[in-house]
């Protein structure tokens, strides 16, 4: 469950390692095939190169997840931070789509579903992500576009 924090509150958290905070970044599971596909999706569609990706398993990723009250070992944990404000779960995916723009803005149509339905869909996919799409190693992917976006 995401805890609401003031914008850019992670900067003042002594448990979060200091880093050059971009305007948009995601914290995702670096061993998940679905997350690796998500990273490729972001890299392919982020024409302005404004998104960065933080592996959840890194010290920075773990600290950011904990800062926002999320468990880095929980498969439901996925975080998107935009201008210092954090979003999680399906809401984070929808907001990434909005920020990527173009056809990806259509993801906001999912908001017509009741919150409980959205949460159930996201939770089912998250819990079954390894079974559905296997495992991957995001940090060793040879794609230079993804490598240039990683913050560790």
Topology:
Blueprint: E1 24-28, H1 33-45, E2 51-55, H2 59-67, E3 79-82, E4 85-88, H3 89-100, H4 115-127, H5 129-133, H6 144-147
Parallel strand pairs: 1-2
Antiparallel strand pairs: 1-3, 3-4
Please provide a written account of the structure.
This protein is an alpha+beta fold and 152 residues long. Helices cover 37% and strands 12% of the residues. The protein has helices at residues 33-45, 59-67, 89-100, 115-127, 129-133, 144-147, and strands spanning 24-28, 51-55, 79-82, 85-88.
| Category from helices, strands and their pairing | alpha+beta
Helix and strand string, N-terminal first?
EHEHEEHHHH
Instruction: Tell me, briefly, the overall form.
Output: globular
Proportion of residues in extended strands: 5-15%
* Average pLDDT score: 85
Q: End-to-end distance, in Å?
A: 23 Å
> How many distinct helices?
6
| Parts with pLDDT < 50 across at least 5 consecutive residues | none
CA-based gyration radius: 14 Å
> What is the strand arrangement across the widest sheet?
2-1-3-4
Summarize the model shown.
By secondary structure, the protein is α+β, with helices and mostly antiparallel strands. The chain has helices at 33-45, 59-67, 89-100, 115-127, 129-133, 144-147, and strands spanning 24-28, 51-55, 79-82, 85-88.
